[in-house]
Amino acid sequence: MDLTSPRVIRDVQNKFGFTFKKGLGQNFLTSRDILTKIVDALENENEVLEIGPGFGTLTAALAERMDKVVSIELDDRLLPVLEYTLGGFDNVKVVHGDVLKLDLRSLIKEEFGERNVSVAANLPYYITTPVITKLLEERLPLNNIVVMVQKEVAQRITASPASKDYGAITLLCRYFCEPSIVTTVPASLFVPPPKVDSAVLKLRLLPKSAVSVTDEKLLFRVIKAAFSQRRKTLLNCMSSAFPVPKEEMSRLLTETGIEPSRRGETLSLDEFARLSENLVSVL
Questions:
Q1: C-alpha dist (Å) from residue 78 to 11, 54, 266
Q2: What does R_g of the chain's alpha carbons equal in angstroms?
Q3: What is the mean pLDDT of residues 216-245?
Q4: How much is the pLDDT for 22?
Q5: How far apart (Å, rounded) are the C-alpha atoms in residues 224 and 168?
Q6: Which of 65, 152, 229, 256 reaches 20 to 30 Å from 3, CA-CA?
Q7: Which has the closest alpha carbon to 28: 46, 2, 48?
Q8: pLDDT, tens digit, for every residue of 19-50?
Q9: What is the reported pLDDT for 192?
Q10: DSSP 100
Q11: Other residues' Cβ atoms within 10 Å of the Cβ of residue 160
């Protein structure tokens, strides 16, 4: 069945008496072209972990070209629906659970062995950042993460320094991976249509972190502090966040090659790394 067809989606809805839950961010894609772009962005992977299969639209597109697809679905109402829509595939396994609570490392090892896999997802907007953060910070054996996200989120993750979209999530992603926007997706290509446009975001995992630091947690504390009050100078933000006298913090910034009057959104990841390294010595 063509799960990108609004008519087929309605028929499946009626068959199972399924109603969309706004709180779960259930918006199902109706474009075969976008599905193809998502699968292509996975770079000929043979195995993939999917998050949030919905009615199985993306799942089916993945299963047509891959050896194995393991999909994580939170909504138990969708389990019988997926059994029906994906009944023609013997290379798909649906796991019922909350991706934010599951032990993903154990799941990947159990289902895929010691091999690296990639992640594909049409994420509910309200869990986009927590899911991406979990996938990256847990350092899972991944090659690529290709996800449908709110367009504004994709713009923030791929933003350049000194732009209005540049922030802590930008730097988190750039520390672990190379981010890019595959394509934008208008709201009209979903059932039901969301209130905002979307984008397919690709995160290509780096073989090692983009910068080398002694204390990774400190680096992200520094980044979080720098963006905690965007209108304030870096000196004021850092002095508020760390138990270091303002005069000493100013000296440390200057010695790092960073003007204390700059704002956090103007710093590159390399500059944040140098700052965190110098901060280690005074904490």
A1: 14, 7, 45
A2: 21
A3: 94
A4: 64
A5: 6
A6: 152
A7: 2
A8: 877 666 678 899 999 999 999 999 988 999 99
A9: 84
A10: T
A11: 9
Q: Is CATH 3.40.50.300 correct for 216-280?
A: no
Q: What is the mean pLDDT of residues 47-59?
A: 95
CATH 3.40.50.150 segments of the chain: 6-205
Specify the pLDDT at position 44.
82
- Burial class, 134, CB count within 10 angstroms (exposed 0-12 / middle 13-18 / buried 19+): middle
Instruction: Look up residue 177 and give its two tokens.
Output: 């991976």
47-51 and 117-122 beta bridge pairing: parallel
Q: What is the pLDDT of residues 78-127, one digit of tens each?
A: 999 999 999 999 999 999 999 999 999 999 999 999 999 999 998 878 89
Return the CATH fold of 6-205: Rossmann fold (3.40.50)
Query: Is residue 189 within 8 Å of residue 4, measured between CB atoms?
Result: no
Strands 190-191 and 117-122 turn out to be unpaired
Mean pLDDT of the residues in the chain: 94
The pair of three-digit structure tokens given for residue 206, joined into one six-digit string: 């780096």
Domain span(s) for CATH 1.10.8.100 in the chain: 216-280
DSSP 8-state code for residue 159: P
Per DSSP, the three-state class of 143 is strand
3-class secondary-structure state, position 131: helix
